Amino acid sequence: MPDAFVDPHPVLFTLFILYGFCFLVQMIFYWGIFLRIAIRHEPRATRDEPQEMRHKVSGIRHQATEIIENRKSKIENSSNGVSVVICAHNEFHHLVYTLPQILEQDYPNFEVVVVDHASDDDTAFLLSDLAERYKHLKVVTIKRDLNFFSGKKFPLSIGIKSATKEIILLTDADCHPAGNQWIRLMQEAFTDDREIILGYGPYDKRKGVLNALIRFDTVQVAIQYLSFALAGIPYMGVGRNLAYKKNLFYQQKGFISHYRISSGDDDLFINRVARMRNTGVQTDPGTFTYSEPKHTAGKWITQKRRHLTTASHYRFWHKFLLGFYGIAQLLFWALFVLLLSWKFAWVFVLSVLLLKWGCQYVVVGRGMYRLQEKQLIPWIPLLEWVMILLQAAITCSNFIVKPHKWK
Questions:
Q1: Could you write out the DSSP letters of every residue in 212-271?
Q2: CATH architecture of 79-295
Q3: Of the four listed, 71, 111, 180, 208, which is most buried by Cβ atoms within 10 Å?
């Protein structure tokens, strides 16, 4: 009789049951949570219409033009002003490229507030030059690093208080929007009830394994927090692409509750104030803001360590769900290696793994496709395995040495 069907040892059988349980936990997250971003409908532009449809398309172009013009007129007459707030510390080399793209957005009622936080490079000269050309650019200069808050929270608070519009749209100095419709599309996601809009901030595509890992990690995190928000459990946002109403910031007293924590100006604030009814998601590719990825593994790992430290301050229920999923992933792979090395029911062990991969490609792969990372889909199993090991190592290291503060 093949080894796969020999009566199992009780301990090994228990491990196999645990292996199956870890599989089921991941399936619950895949099909119950992550599927929401995978099947989320996005408007698509009409391309390559069939011949019999082209006359209909040409026939409605005039009507479509009128609708667009009426829509623009409504926006211009509305009070949905947007303040884009950016904090910068020695960011001349980024702002010279990214800031003009933000200043030239196609939206009639917006301003850009840049907080120059004690820079000693040419940032001030660049901002002065751009302010002369763009009247909707407001520059706030902080000449000394006043430690009222840890990290980025003090300059960001100053920027938000200096903003004159009700909608605050946040991004970083090294981020550039996918196109000139970024502000308009993010603003359109607001309603009377929605006070927070979560966006997506991917990293620029580069060659190399490190870039693939950074992008894979980023898109996996995005699938999680966007899907949880769609499921009515918003727990974080990313400051590279995040919007909320200024009145909400004042009502919640800004970052007061976690001002001693150096990071968390984005995710900790959202974790505290976001609820099912007041939070929306915007995943239109036109709203993505792309950032320059870290060039060395050391800098990226330092960034990851800081993010994981911040996550320890989330609400208990959020930490439980995220931790439960992470432990299930880690145990699944550990038990797979253990069971296979002992040649225990290898047919069933491999079958469970193949079923997991199939579901992962369908759900997670579709989510990655939606978020414009289809090049990484074939490498999901390998990249997941590497990231699980790396995440475990970083978590352990955080107990020994605390990560650095925001620059």
A1: HHHHHHHHHHHHHHHHHHHTT------TTSEEEEHHHHHHTTTTGGGTTSSS-TTHHHHH
A2: Alpha-Beta Complex (3.90)
A3: 111
